[in-house]
Structure prediction request, 1239 residues.
Amino acid sequence: MSTSTPAPQPSSSGAPTSMPPAGRVATKDRPHGGVGDRLRLWWDALPRPTQWLVGVPFVLFMALVPILNIPVLTTVGTNFGGVMAQFGMIALIAIGLNVVVGQAGLLDLGYVGFYAIGAYTVAILTSPDSPWNQAGEGHWLGREWAWLAALPVAIAITSLSGLILGSPTLRLRGDYLAIVTLGFGEIVRLLADNLDELTGGGQGLRGVAYPRLGVTEDLPNGVFSAGNAAGTLNSGVWWYWLSLVFIVISLLFVGNLERSRVGRAWVAIREDEDAAEIMGVPTFRFKLWAFVIGASIGGVAGALYAGQVQFVIPTNFNVINSVLFLCAVVLGGQGNKLGVILGAFIIVYVPNFFLGRTELFGIPINGNEIASYRYLFFGLALVVLMIFRPQGLIPVRQKLLTYGRELYVAARRSAHVVAPRGGSDGGARPGTPAVATASGGAGGAAPVAGGPTADGPGTARSTTNEEETR
Amino acid sequence: MPALAEALVHSATAGPLVHQSLIDFNLAGLGRNFWGLTIEGLTYGAIYALVAVGYTLVYGVLRLINFAHSEVFMLGMFGQYATLLLLGFYPSGNAYDKGILLTVLYLGIAMLGGMIVAGGTAVGLERVAYRPLRKRGAPSLVFLITAIGMSFVLQEFVHFVLPKLTGGTLGGVNAQQPIRLVQPEVQFTIGGAPVTNVTLVIILSALVLALATDLFINRTKFGRGIRAVAQDPVTATLMGVSRERVIMLTFLIGGILAGAAALLYTLRVPNGIIYSGGFILGIKAFSAAVLGGIGNLRGALLGGLLLGVMENYGQVVFGTEWRDVVAFVLLIVVLMFRPTGILGESLGRARA
Amino acid sequence: MHRTARRASGGAALLLAATLVLTACGPQSQGGGGDETTGTSTETDDGGSTELSIVPSVQIDIEGAEVEATEGGDPADPAGDGSAECAEGTAIAMAGALTGPNAALGLNILYGAQLAVDEFNAANPGCQVTIKEFDTEGDPQKATQVAPQIVGDASVLGLLGPAFSGETAATGDVFSQAGLLSLSASATNPDLTKNGWTNFFRGLANDAVQGPSVAKYLVNTKSFGSVCVVSDNSDYGIGLAQQITEGLGDAANDECAAEVKTGDKDFSAAVQIISGADADAVFYAGYYAEAAPFVQQLRDGGVDIPFVSADGTNDPQFVSQAGASSEGAILSCPCGPAPDDFAAAYEESAGQAPGVYSVEGYDLATIMLSGIASGVADRAGLIDYVANYSGDGLARTYEWDSAGELAAALIWIYEVQ
Prediction:
């Protein structure tokens, strides 16, 4: 007989009321008692201005990472600025894909298509190889500002393509949607490959415009040009900073959406589409919104890519990349916008880490040899991580979306009051029913707030709990 | 836009290869080669169909896209290749001529080798990657990511580790030097199109295997278990069906058929034995499964054959570079009008 | 047989049983194996075709006319006169795909250059040059990340690479502005030398030379009146196919022109189209990985017209994978044939036979080393040295025009026999 089918519910259903007999079980009954969750609770309870006071220096620190030359962190075989630039672009993609996959729960395997459309829009408008080139001499856009002028066009066209791809396909569900989006991603790539006259086909489009800023004697093409390769402030760093700007903007944008009616609708659709529909959520419209917003963010990333590399070619937009983007999202923790950025960092950074390294912490290693096995390790890491941490590195915790902060403050207060009294293993950990309500994961207490707080189906819950025991 | 006009003029003068229009509709070519294209299409379709059965069975039972199934197929190719090596054949690029009986025997043994390796891989995959997740009740997206991870692992294993283990005989960057047991020879013609012995072998064996699988699923006790679990896992468990055994059996059947498909594929494309050789075919086979209605055994067969034939027509009508576009557009169009595929999802419901 | 297999569907038990069956088959099949070997040898006797290899046949110029190979040239020896002096830590860089699916080409160049450097170091105790490897995976974005590292490494005097046209286009500005010599052994896109880069030179004829030369050769010398041009979708394949089609003029058969995808293994539709057209030859613009199954499927499909291809196919792997089908294939290459003693030395140092561009890697590294030996100690000096260089290498005479193209580039025609 099977052991797994009616998964032995880890006594969570009635847990908050019953007294846990021992420490180990207690942690099981008490959801999310880790350091990360305490941090989360602390952060959520902070007033907005204080959050900004903490957040801004953190972002500044992140911006300085590529020029601080931190010993082990800095890559050896490839330029760290360049790696960070790529990370910035993939992070943007992960944020965009997270809207679709993590928040609205639509499995999209063809997201690379939007990345490609963004990149190709900029390239077609500004590359001298393209028949529709608008930049340079004899055209109405100067090379200096062509990239910036093409960016909104790229965003508009990717959004439109999201609409066009989304409106017929979003009637499909689950795995059908996955394969159809995969098909669309491939079709975009194949179109780029086959429409030779427009896209250059397999020869690609060269000489894509980029912002020409900071022109000096040494840098006739400005700081963003590939020619700015020397020193710490090279073009990679500048592109990274530009991506950071877009990351912050899209985080604010997506974050606000998440807390709005739209975000609540997404959560409802993700958890149970039929129920959402019955409760009056216009599911199709909100799914389409998720698709369009995700697509436009992907378009920004594509535009950044085209500008930085100044060369687009179809092979960079294949299914494998789509899959890697999805990995970034799931690895980091789907639904958690900071988690997916971490996921993006891992996807980009780890393969570069070993390249050209001859020693690590004083131990001599052959980095290039190790680097050639990178996808093997990468695959193993994915499997192991998914087995032991299926919710991702920084899993999302369902939050109360309305009256949020007041409740977090209340939860924290009650945690301080209740914990020393009721906690069997030291009062430091906030593990009371009140907290459980606030962080929403505990099944039994969830319906209290009346909002869409249930943390997914029972399966997801039991994993989280099991996870906590180890 | 003068630039556009200029570029078009330029490309028009650039020579005949740069087509006058972006897509040319060569319907005459389709008419001229109709039977040949159909036969070729059915050959590939048969192979797609066998691989698609693996996707569809696993999906029917577990609601899981086994993304790594393409790697099961790839290892099946290496399995039959290794079997031939063990049998004493040497790769030379030239075909052996051993007479019909012996050739069939050796092909049978090679197919068995491919089936064992592929079936073993599929079952091992289930053990290592999916069972722990099921035990933890992970959400379905996690299964997909694990499958992708295993796909990477298996490919890179053949790419880097296998050549080290076998002293460079198997695996590596380049395709295996082919061992060919059958030289394609035209047996007869249909409508002017030649039918070779290889084509016959592929289509007939695929049909026999498909029929056998259908009988197995629909007529035997094990098949009833599979259908029961696909329809309602909890009730099936309560009725005394071991879900774990059923799942293992499902992976095994999928793997065995992929191993058989691997041999048939290498008969047709002897140079295709390479670590990356399963990926595209896997995506196509998965499309075929969805096309026919994923979870539906007969749907997988129908979808495979249809996809093979249609993409062969398409690449003549639109040009060879549009082959994959035709396949995906067909998939999307069918799903638009029949959102659960041509025959619908019905592994559990069929003859229940 | 699968039916009996399934009967025993006890999972692991089945596997075990099957393994047992196979091992039981072992000794018996060994006996069968003896039969097979005799079978092969008889086959070899009557076929006589297992020992196929790519043999250089003629050298042609841009008009497709045959040119006498200038034998007896004096190829530069990397060892020099053994008295070179240079600063400690002097290095040259090599950039290209060293891992990933396109690694074979990058490694060919690297091993060739490594051989030159080894010979140089062995002969010149006063000057030990290292070769630094930079892996771009052939990916343009990756190349933009690698390029600053190369430029930033002050010990690097010159760069051998980048290997592919795409990554060269993406990183050309970096090397140009840093004033670092970029000497490519394999980037053949004609547009690369039109960017005004004064540091870029390529050690072989570009596609604008190879295409017309081969096309004229096919039309004039081989008298093919109708050729099907099939290309893959790579930068290289498309560019070459365009050049060939233009060069063939009326002889290019529009009816059976086709494009396939890199990575494809099935060319049934292309074969159908070609067998339906009444052509004299097929030209394939692409790499050996696709060319081998393509030629095989052509032959299996009963298409017996000559198969012509270019440098991307000119690799021993093509012959070993296509077997007898490759017999008689005509392969052009701007690359010169590897002389026997070079091939032997290369095989000893790299552990494999020289492939496409190995000779170029060796020659170009030799040129850089001779520059270093002549006392050049900075990057600008090495660019000057190469710009004014004139001398024979193993493959051809190296002398560049102001744009960085070879002054006189001839194409070699090889045949599989």
